[in-house]
Structures are given as structure tokens and as C-alpha cells.
Amino acid sequence: MTIADNEMLIGLNEAVDAIIEVGEKCQKCYRHCGATPPPILIDLAKHNGQSTLTRFYSKVLKQTYGLPSGGLDDYLEFSVNGDMKALKDLRRKLTQAAVYTNTYRGVVSFDITGLAEYINESQIEFFHREVLWAARDACLLFYVAPEEMQRMAKLIADLSDTVGNFEVVHVSPYTITELAKITEANIRKLGISVNSEADDAFSNLMQEVIQNVVIHSAKETELIAKRLAEYADYSAFRPVFGLQHLRNALNYYSDDRGESYHGER
Fold first, then answer.
1. End position of a domain, from candidates 170, 188, 222
2. N or C: the chain end with fewer CB closer than 10 Å?
3. Residue 46: inside a domain, yes or no?
4. Rounded CA separation 33/226 (Å)
5. Which domain does 201 fall in, by range?
6. 173-198 tens-digit pLDDT
7. pLDDT at site 36
């Protein structure tokens, strides 16, 4: 069986491989003995594919572990910091998302980067307690921004002791080629096609565009795709990129002098 063979992911190869490995262990062992898959911690910053990986993990576990497909949410995502009110609200939200049970049994991800400023505070102890409660039934993912991994080493080690040893996965930064492919996918999501004349050159031109901008996260490729969409041909029923439209867009970015993209994320 090919695990989640219908899922197209760009980049994040180390995390994808780790998730698939857990899925394979679920097929062979965990689903048969009733054990919950061990948590995974990934050094990945916000807006760089956290939701994509969490969704992918949920699909893999549905296929290999038998996670229920029903419920209010297939997966839940939390970004936690030192806000004690928000920390105390975690259990309520997990309970509300449960269906026919008292605890949530799907995939739960926590971006814990925001806890870096509270390593020696009471919030950390409280978070450990809530995570331990969630780990009884839920399948957990943790995310930490790469630049905070060293500062949070003790917190990560303590968290691993709390929920059981988890695998720490280091993800390589996106390459220009990968960011270009993500931009291309975002353009197609906008309903814009590429004619046969421009199809062969499309990927190369996308890479040239990416080389001419400063990107701080994969999320920003959505903004680039929207800007590029302005250069498409809208005279027909469906918008389309021809070779000249792509060249016009590239000329714009060639004169862009390293524009930096910061938008709503």
C-alpha cells in the first residue's frame, strides 16, 4: 500500500519521510496493539508548511492507523505561548472537538515557539500537564522555529520526558526550485492556466521570479502568485498565461530590487 499516495507535497522531505515511517509502523504494530503513535517534533517555523504537514499526518494516520474520519475536525492546530488563559482553554477546545468520547482522538499540533520566553515560568509546567492529558488519546505533532531550537533544548528534552520519547526532525530550508513550484501551484489554484507555448518555460520563469524577491516564508508565495496573476490574459473565459505574459511579469520582478513580502498570514 502506498501511504497517502494522493497527497502532493513540495519540500519538507525530512518531515514527510518521518511521518510516512510512523504510518508504516502504525500498519505493522500500533493499530493492532492499541498504542498511540509517538509524537514528532519538527523544526519548522510558522507559515512554512505546518498546516500542510499536520493535514498530511492526519491523512496518513487515517489510512494506516484507522483514525476516525468523522468528527468536528480531522486535526487541530494550536500556537501556544505564555498566555495562561489560552493554555487553560486547550483542554476545553480538545474536549469540544471530541465526538462520542470524552477526549479528542485525532491529530493535534502545537507550535511551541512562543514558549521560549517562559522556560522558567509556571506556564511550562501547566502546558506539560495539559499535553500529557491530550497524549492519552491524541496523536501529537510539535513545531519549533529553527532559530529557537538551541534555546529551547531543555524544554524540548523535558517535554519528551513528559509525553514519551519523540523523534526530532530537522527540515532543510526550501530551495529556490521548491519555492518556485509552490508559487506555480498557488497560481493554478487561482484558476489560471498556462498555454502550451509557455508551459515548458513556466517552471524556469518561476525560479527567476523567486530569485528576484526576498521571501521570509513559504506563505508569502501566495502574495507573489496574486501579483503575478495581474499579468495573465483575462480576455477569454478562463484566465491564461502566455509566454509574453510571463516575460512581462519577469521583467517586473527583475526591476523589483529584492522586494520583500509582508502581508496577512
1. 170
2. N
3. yes
4. 48
5. 176-260
6. 999 999 999 999 999 999 999 888 88
7. 80
